[in-house]
Design goal:
Length: 340
Amino acid sequence: MKIGALDLGDKPLFLAPMEDVTDPSFRYMCKRYGADMMYTEFVPADGLIRDAAKALAKLNIFDYERPIGIQIYGHEIEPMVEAARMAAAAGPDLVDINFGCPVKKIAGRGAGSGMMRDVPKMVEMTRRIVEAVSCPVTVKTRLGWDEETKNIVEIAERLQDVGISALTIHGRTRSQMYRGEADWTLIGEVKHNHRMTIPIIGNGDIDSPERAAEAFDRYGVDGVMIGRATYGRPWIFREIKHYLTTGELLPQPSVRERVELAKLHFSKSLEFKGPKGGVLEMRRHFSTYFRGLPDFKATRLKLVTLFEPEEIIATLDYIAERWGDYDVSTEIPPSLSHDL
């Protein structure tokens, strides 16, 4: 699969851009376990133009992460064009436009999936951005605004016509938010549309190697994007690649292995964000690394309330000692289909 001149190989796996999740430390872990393409957290166009520190910090990328894209969002054309120029100047492999985020504070003012209510504006914004930057421009979007307007086939054609290099489709409407199952049939319809020549990446409900294989084999997508199923499970990329190659499922990492992974992730979080920011950032990840352990409530509470890194490391060591022999072979990862 190629995005412009960027060759991602056969059946590439993408880490979805997720606000407050896909920071450098988490991207480090996912790259370590085989993510073929990653994205920054999505960046607000208005924040970039105002030189807001938080928005600018999201443009920081590292060579070991490549290939990597920067995703931007906004509801007005001129600020989005300027933000695209700023993002491209940071040196990513591509710039991605978010037309998919369903949360009210974004979609409600016409950004993210809110842009699906004004397709001509969506298309014109995309055209202007493609013309403004020299790197490939891609788009992530949904099936439509609601059940009555599942117009992704038309939207895909029009976005391709103005020059995007790839399209990622989340298999839900904006109105669905994250409810119900993703509809991959429409994603497949876009992929098999004889007019489409750009790569199509499918997103939604990919939480197991079997589902990833089905996405490729049944719906024919060029790539698969994984979002919240990566929480506490960055090794899902390795699992899927092994299954696609051999047809066999890898055993789940042991508790002791997960402790070491959590320590590595924590060290990277501290490295990138310092003691305070690194501790706070890791709280969303700690409990997910140890999802399903029995009698874990009190220890989980410690992990998400402690402030001193030394105490957190000691708690992780305790987990290895207390639950190190717990059998995770029967663990069934929950369905985490809330890909942004």
